[in-house]
Amino acid sequence: MKILYISRDYCPHDHRHLSAIRDGGNEAYFLRLEDAKRGLENRSLPEGVIQVEWKSGGKDRFHILTAPSLALDLKKIIIDIRPDLIHAGPIQSAGLVAALSGFHPMISMSWGFDLMRDADRNMISRWVTRNVLQKSDWLFADCRAVLKKAADYGYDLSRSSYFPWGVDLSHFRPENDSRITDELGWKDAFVLFCNRSWEPQYGVDIVARAFVEAAKKDTKLRLLLLANGSQSDFIKSIFDEGKVLDRVYMPGQINYLDLPHYYHSADLYVSASHIDGSSVSLMEALACGLPVAVSNIPGNMEWVTPGEQGWIFNDGNVSELSEIMLSGSKSRVDLAVMSLKARHKAEIQANWQVNQQRMLEGYKKVMAGQPADIG
Question: Which of 75, 133, 153, 241 has its CA 20 to 30 A from that of 181?
Answer without folding.
Answer: 241
